[in-house]
Design a protein that fits this description.
The complex is a heterodimer of chains A (365) and B (174). Chain A has 365 residues and is α+β, with helices and mostly antiparallel strands. Chain A has 14 helices and ten strands. In chain A, strand 6 and strand 7 form a beta hairpin. Classes of the chains: A alpha+beta (365), B mainly alpha (174). Bound molecules: zinc ion (ZN) (2 copies).
Chain lengths: 365, 174
């Protein structure tokens, strides 16, 4: 399929809503770093070697069952906007999108599996699932990797595991992560404490759309730091329990906010709704923050549950590349903020009004 | 108040401060805005603190005069210090003496206990089998056991055939 039709196709992230059972986790991703034996890593290989590796990998990956309907292209076949859209959908890295010739990507139709070729390693395989689905994501990527290994000779050492360009990925080559929506921890100023505690457990926290504890949209990515010395299942189990405890902290923080001053919280959410309905200039960062508050409103049952997919989709579609794509021509940053506001006004004209909360404050499940 | 912290990479004033605890050891990295940008600290996909730490420890180390060069890809220790990346998979053997001590601070353990790719391992055991057979063959010839030698030679041919890559995609095509 072509990149254009892939971009128009509903994806895992923009169409399947994260399950309300665990609304705190927006999505789960696992990636594996793999390399071919006997070949230089992409950063050291010369142009001929890179294009030979690219061709070998594109063919092997493209032949796998999950990739039967996929986009399978060189990075140079894409324009800047197409690459930006793929970055915003978490399908390729900025590093890959900036690389010259000799790199490529294979992405399946529903955008749950993406493989970057000749990024830092020969292969970076990623499986993405909406919601909190670490085990499912691991099973899927494990099968995919085993099938690919039938076709390619991986660089592997019994002592050090999968050999990667950077020693920080050595061993399992696995990075498992969850994207979490943590507005109450941010509002109540607890994020720094959480980051420190999570670091102590060997996991990394980073803001998705910004720096550290002030990430706009209150969206954070939590992932494992170490890749060697433990089996994959063990890393996933540890991550799972860290995530579980962050979820508990977030839900507790929401409860506390509701108990302390429900009016203040409902006011924030109501104002966010008003701005989204009536503003004419919205930066990407402000839009993320407003959408974040509405998503919190859904969790608190101020808005109906079935409006959640709209917000999750807009988290992606309010980003610069997507806004630009929607109007089909180049925009200055200022114009883009205008377009974004227009787009959101339109979406929120159809969005249900907030329910008047009970005086004691709604309780999250 | 002491003097403001300097960037670990370029020594301009640092504005981005990161802390990470790996294996109960606290690691701190201070960066200026430009280096934080350049190192992808702001890129959710591309940033690795361990990576920064590794580079910081590499630049602090007295420059060893070792002229070790990877026989497979020509990579040198100096290049590893500069990029923090290796040239090819074989570099891990070549530079084992530098890698080994780093792994303990970077990871949970220093040996792999996870997934093992069936094919790479069978290739390795075939490789071991081949060298063993070649040794036997040499011995047999030296001690003039020609029947044994012929048998080893046949076996070597068989092992080498097993090495040849499988026909493409037989099992995965619909
Ligand atoms: Zn600097
Ligand atoms: Zn090498």
């Amino acid at each position: 399929m072509t990149i254009q039709s892939l971009i128009e196709t509903p994806s895992e992230l923009t169409s399947s809503a994260s399950s309300s059972k665990c609304a705190v986790v927006l999505m789960t991703r696992i990636r594996l770093a793999r390399n071919l034996s006997g070949r230089s890593f992409p950063g050291w290989a010369d142009a001929d070697q890179r294009s030979e590796i690219l061709a070998t990998c594109r063919e092997a990956v493209g032949a796998l069952n999950p990739m039967k309907r996929s986009v399978n292209v060189g990075v140079t076949d894409l324009n800047e906007l197409q690459k930006l859209i793929l970055v915003e959908r978490h399908l390729i890295s900025r590093e890959l999108s900036g690389s010259k010739s000799g790199s490529g990507l294979v992405i399946n139709r529903d955008q749950t599996v993406s493989v970057m070729i000749n990024e830092e390693d020969h292969l970076r395989i990623q499986v993405l699932r909406a919601g909190f689905q670490l085990k499912k994501a691991w099973n899927a990527i494990n099968d995919f990797d085993s099938a690919l290994e039938e076709k390619l000779d991986y660089a592997f050492s019994p002592r050090w595991g999968y050999l990667t360009a950077c020693p920080t990925n050595l061993g399992t080559g696995m990075r498992a992560s969850a994207m979490m929506h943590l507005p109450a921890l941010v509002i109540s100023g607890q994020m720094e404490k959480i980051v420190r505690a999570v670091n102590q457990l060997g996991m990394v926290v980073r803001g998705l759309f910004g720096e550290g504890s002030d990430a706009s949209g209150s969206i954070f990515q939590i992932s494992n730091q170490t890749t060697l010395g433990e089996p994959e299942e063990e890393i996933i189990k540890r991550l799972q329990s860290v995530l579980q405890s962050i979820i508990e902290h977030e839900l507790n923080a929401r409860q506390k906010l509701l108990e302390a001053d429900p009016r203040k919280l409902f006011d924030k959410i109501g104002r966010a709704y008003g701005i989204l309905q009536h503003s004419h200039v919205l930066s990407s960062a402000e839009a993320m923050n407003l959408l974040s508050l509405l998503r919190l409103g859904i969790d608190l049952q101020i808005f109906p549950e079935d409006s959640r997919p709209v917000i999750d989709r807009l988290f992606i579609e309010a980003q610069p590349g997507h806004v630009q794509h929607a109007v089909q021509h180049d925009l200055e940053a200022g114009e883009r903020d205008g377009m974004r506001a227009t787009r959101l006004r339109d979406e929120f004209a159809r969005f249900p009004a907030p329910a008047t909360p009970p005086p004691s404050g709604a309780k999250p499940d | 108040m002491g003097s403001p912290l300097k960037c670990d990479l370029c020594s301009k004033p640092a504005t981005v401060h990161l802390t990470q605890i790996v294996n109960n050891k606290v690691h701190k990295v201070d960066l200026c805005e430009a280096c934080a940008q350049a190192k992808g600290v702001t890129d959710p996909n591309g940033f690795s603190l361990a990576d920064l730490l590794m580079k910081a420890s590499l630049t602090n180390e007295p420059t060893a005069t070792s002229a070790t060069r990877c026989e497979q890809c020509g990579f040198t220790q100096a290049e590893f210090k500069k990029h923090g990346r290796f040239g090819c998979p074989h570099c891990y053997e070549t530079f084992a003496a530098i890698v080994e001590p780093m792994l303990g601070t970077m990871h949970k353990g220093t040996t792999h206990t996870g997934k093992v790719p069936a094919r790479a391992v069978s290739r390795k055991s075939l490789h071991d089998r081949l060298s063993a057979l070649e040794g036997e063959l040499d011995n047999a010839i030296k001690s003039e056991r020609y029947e044994d030698a012929a048998r080893y030679r046949d076996e070597i041919v068989q092992v080498k055939q097993a090495f040849a890559p499988k026909a493409e995609g037989e099992s995965l095509r619909p």
